[in-house]
Amino acid sequence: MARRCILAVYSHPDDETTVSGGTLMRYVQEGVDLHVITATRGEWGALGSGDMVIAREDLPAVREAELRANLDLYGVNPPTMLDYIDGALKDAEFEEHVGLILAEMQRLKPDVVITWGPTGISHHDDHIATNIATDAAFDRYRETVDTNPRLFYVAVPQIFVEEFKLDVDGSEANPTMAIDVTKNLATKIQGLRNYKSQEDAQEVATMMESGEWGEVEMFHQVYPPATKGVMATGFWD
Q1: What is the domain-level CATH number for residue 127?
Q2: Please, which residues have CB within 8 angstroms of residue 135's CB and are 6 or more apart in sequence?
Q3: What is the pLDDT of residues 175-219, one digit of tens each?
Q4: Nearest by Cα to 156 from 214, 232, 234, 226
Q5: What is the pTM of this model?
Q6: End-to-end CA distance of the chain, in Å?
Q7: Is there a domain that residue 228 lies in?
Q8: Which uninterrupted H or E stretch holds 151?
Q9: 36: which strand partners?
Q10: Hey, which residues does 150 pair with through a beta bridge?
Q11: Contacts for 200 with CB less than 8 Å, ≥ 6 apart
């Protein structure tokens, strides 16, 4: 079988697990070459959950270690760290930021690129900057290859938008792909629990353990535009 490759581009350690952990595991299990770019080490994130207390100066190393351990658990390649500071992506030199992502695309030759959409779901400045830089890098990348790579944004269903009162619309509230991750849900929850530094990750894990949601991860195909009205169930299905 010909090599297949997925590249996921995110802003912080735990992004990859929260919105696409089950998807990453599914495709590793199908023999796809999986890579993750993480722009920052989450320096300004929470300083521990439960009884854990982390010094601010130690947090970057802790979060990177959590990220690396989880990717190893999932079978994903070690992450590419872009070495930006949490919260500072919007002020990063644009061509440098784009160039770092483009270099990885050109090195890895992904068939599929996944990233945040225009609002990053949460309107976090780092998520938005990741979207803008990845979009630009992807546009340049696809002009250099003979294949037809595809770009996807993280998306959520409208019922999710309403339940959690998210300020999200457009492509991010219009999934064109729903991937069943039930088979890997327990490991995804384990991955969230492994992010012991982050209270948000623990809260998401608790919600998933309750069965409220989490069996499906959703994306919107940006390029080439998806067939209207058709909900895909996988990147190569």
Answers
A1: 3.40.50.10320
A2: 115, 151
A3: 999 999 999 999 999 999 999 999 999 999 999 999 878 899 999
A4: 214
A5: 0.96
A6: 15
A7: no
A8: strand 150-155
A9: 8
A10: 112
A11: 14, 46
